[in-house]
Amino acid sequence: MKRIIFMFMIFLSHLAIANAENIFQYGRVDFFGGREAHEELVPAETKQPLETITDEWAEPVISPSGKVSIHVPPQEVRDFLEKPDPENAKAYLAWNLKRIKKFALAQELLTKEAKELEVMKETNSLLEPDSSPSLKGSKNNIKARVSYLFYFMLKGCSVCEKESKIIEDIYLNHSEIRIEAFAKGFSDQELDVFRFPARQDNGMSNLFKVNSYPSIVVFNKKKQRYFLSGFMDKDRILGLFR
Fold first, then answer.
1. Inter-CA distances, 162 with 39, 127, 159, 166, 170, Å
2. For position 2, what pLDDT does the model report?
């Protein structure tokens, strides 16, 4: 009797499962099928063998994805090295001159910026009080024996034009005086015309509190400092260095 009841219960359980599948339409769920799905998302190019390209002028660069790109010298270089003739030589030289010009411009800019920094550094040391420890070192003692003239000029200022001729005269005939001119309103090309060192102001007039043009700042060998505003003749300027 017990066996019949047991068999009947098994029959009812199979019947319930079959009805549930028909009602809810569920099937097998495999919780370990993620590996196959992940492999389908991998880009196809990563499965491709890495391509190697051999060329006398080529330098293959392979990215992590396996893509190959080629870096080669410019056509002018390849043509000249493959077939060195006068025509190819001219093309190569023209290409090389363009590169050299860029290097020269970059070097000129670096030199200019280095000079600006050096002038700012020297100016700051000159503006320090005499009791400053920085003036007691041997290097600064050497600087103290150098005479400086800082000249501030403004474009369009007629008095500045007259003063610039005086500054030029002092620069050409008194090498013991170091002259640095700082200009406002001038282009770099216009500053190149002056025969004395002239550069953009770049805040130097603010450092010296210049509010009128022309202005001259003098540092002589005796560690004396003078600020001159307006037109000054040559003799009066040179008298401050004696």
1. 83, 28, 5, 7, 13
2. 55
pLDDT value of position 153? 97
Query: In the listed set 86, 109, 143, which residue is the last one of a domain according to the structure?
Result: 143
CATH for 157: 3.40.30.10
Measure the N-to-C terminal CA separation of the chain; round to a whole number of Å.
137
Q: Residues 214, 157: contact at Cβ < 8 Å?
A: yes
Would you say residue 207 lies in a domain? yes
Query: What does the pLDDT look like over 94-127, one tens digit per residue?
Result: 888 888 888 787 777 777 666 666 666 666 666 6
The model carries a pTM of 0.48
For residues 170 and 112, membership in a common domain is answered with: no
Closest CA to 143 of 164, 121, 159, 166: 121
Query: Which amino acid appears at position 9 of this protein?
Result: M
**Whether pLDDT at 39 is above 60:** no
Instruction: Give residue 202's domain range.
Output: 146-239
Tokens, residue 241: 């260095």
CA 60 to chain centre: 29
- What's the half-sphere exposure (Cβ side, CA atoms, 13 Å) at 230? 1
Supply the pLDDT for residue 140.
47
198-200 sheet: strands from edge to edge = 198-200, 177-184, 147-154, 215-219, 225-229
Residues 137 and 83 grouped into a single domain = yes
Over residues 54-73, the pLDDT tens digits come to 566 777 777 778 777 777 78
Q: Both 211 and 233 in a single domain? A: yes
Taking CA atoms, 211 is separated from 117, 154, 184, 190, in Å, by 23, 11, 12, 22
Percentage of the chain surpassing pLDDT 70? 62
